[in-house]
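**User:** Hello, beginner here. Are you able to go through the protein record under this note? It all follows right here:
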Amino acid sequence: MSDAKSDCRIVVCAALNQFIQEKNPEAASVKSEDLMLQTPPDPLMGDIGVPMFVFAKVLHMAPPAIAQSIVNIITGSGELGGTAPSSLGQFIAAGPYVNLKLNKAGTGYSVLSRIAEQGENYGSLDENEKRPFEGRRVMVEYSSPNTNKPLHLGHMRNDALGESVSRILKKAGAEVYKVNIINNRGVHICKSMIAYKLFHEPNGETPETLHMKGDHFVGQCYVEFDKYAKEHPDAQQQAEDMLIQWERGDPEIRRLWKQMNDWAIGGIKVTYDRTAVSFDKLYYESETYLKGREEIMRGLEKGIFFKAPDGSIRIDVSEIVGGKDDREHEKVLLRKDGTSVYITQDIGTAISRHNDWAFNQLVYVVASEQIYHFKVLFYVLKKLGFEWTDKLYHLSYGLVNLPSGRMKSREGTVVDADDLIDQLHADALSEIREKGRETEVGNADDVAEKIALGALQYYLLQITPVKDMLFNPKESLSFTGDTGPYLQYMGARIASILRKAAEDGINPDGSKSSVALLTSDCEWDLIKKLGEFPSVTAKAADALDPSVMTGYLYSVSKLFSKFYQQCPILSAENTELVKARLFLAECTLTVLKSAMSLVLVPYLEKM
């Protein structure tokens, strides 16, 4: 479809310029890349539509009359812009649109041969054979765990978005650098440390002695502190005092802090490996917050910030907060005791990152709760004089809730990521065993793990990022409907068909004469959808929205299912048609596998 769209633009553009020259010679000529392309609502009206509304003023004509005139020029020409219109198909006027009914044989061969030739790289090149994001350097920050608790369901949405967006950007040609800021200092970290000293250290308890994953153990300490604080009013002050000691470098506090950080980070990395989430560089708040403090002190000297009566250092943010109350017109950047707040380290981290890897864009994947925070962060950096601030972008995403309500870490009501995947894994394994498919799928435990991950990741990505969502584990594991397991099943079904054909000595045939046999509506609809993959990739990359890709995957899977039901593959009426349909199935699998990897759904040969 990419070639067809490009050729359609060229032909219509050439006809338009010829018509403009006749009607209004003083008007500027049209560039083919400026023409808007749309998909007609009814396939009977054509496959590609070019609206004529924008030319009404220049030509002093109604759009339908312009469309008819352009079609007359096209149909009366043997060649336009170096392309023979008749080779593309039939151009028709449909109201204010110039529509093209594509030549099925020629377009089908163009689409499928590109897929076969490019293989896993298909989808990266646009209609002009260029990578749309070539030359763009994008840094993506995601996950940002705290070392006082394990990853939970909310982190899973963050990780899925960050990893998927990174893969989509890379597919579109961008150079991507994935980073993670480990929030390993602060009052919340000290709370877990206090609980450990109170309830575990006296008994010599560690994650190893309790046979617990390190991050789970530290998270348990955090919950224990919350219970402790409800009975001890001075608990919060104890944590704040410990933070002051930490910032002063107290050796005993630092030793305990390092030990508990190692436990937490070690456990978190195990979960990253399990979910195929990775990073090019880890940043640690403990290493970047001082840089932020230096910049704030520099800004104070320059009068960008001011010292409040209580001794804290603040900035006036009236310019960006609009009608919020007076209290929120000032943002604290350093506490009165000189300790850093969250935004302090974010300032230092942003500066360090640009120094480390000069980006064209830095995308922060952070929940919508932090919209105000990032608005202030970008404002502070701009005030400090960093020109690259305009290249910062907050990819805000909605919260993940459960049927039981919102999750709270300190109260221990979160859904732990490991526990959730374990449960999904167990449910998938149970399904495999109930259907008696252990032998057929091979390693049932490995297949169950991939089904669990596909179910979770796809469910989290199929909703537009900005929206809040309700996670339903049972729905996510369904093998029918818009789910990860449904895509995996479709991929496994195609793989099975291709294996059976190979066993019977039948190979797919992608020759032009073979593809010309694919003329049914369901075959044509599937071919057209496969041809959209490059434009879908570009759209998802531009919008930083994996749900564009999940929607596409579901459409491809449904169209293949329809094709499979209505057009027998291995039992087609003749060998030539069998080979042609096998080639279409093979190309479909290539696209499915590639697109599934972009939304973190593992491909399964057998299921």
